[in-house]
Write a structure and sequence with these properties.
By secondary structure, this protein is mainly beta. The chain has a single domain, classed as Jelly Rolls, CATH 2.60.120. It is about 0% helix and about 45% strand. Strands 1-8-3-6 form a four-stranded antiparallel sheet, with no helix packed on it. A four-stranded antiparallel sheet has the order 2-7-4-5, with no helix packed on it. It is elongated, with a radius of gyration of 12 Å. The termini are close together.
Length: about 80
């Protein structure tokens, strides 16, 4: 892991994952239909976050926008 944190912020329309070892993440469904984040439905307009807990997260977080768009920010 680098000494300095790296921020990624963009919109996704394809399935993917927030990589293992992230320090913080936030996800907002900016689409008009439900999406899936970590196996849980995320309704249109809803957001969720994975706050900084003092150490990196030990698992990747999968997401599938389906027919929506997810705005994701995460820090590695």
């Amino acid at each position: 892991m680098d000494v300095l944190a790296n921020i990624t912020e963009q919109e996704f329309t394809e399935a993917g994952e927030i990589p293992i070892g992230f320090l913080y993440a936030s996800i907002k469904n900016v689409g008009t239909v439900s999406a899936a984040v970590n196996g849980v439905a995320l309704a249109a307009g809803e957001a969720k976050s994975y706050p900084f807990v003092g150490k990196p997260y030990g698992a990747a977080i999968p997401y599938d926008p389906k027919d929506a768009t997810l705005r994701i920010l995460y820090i590695l």
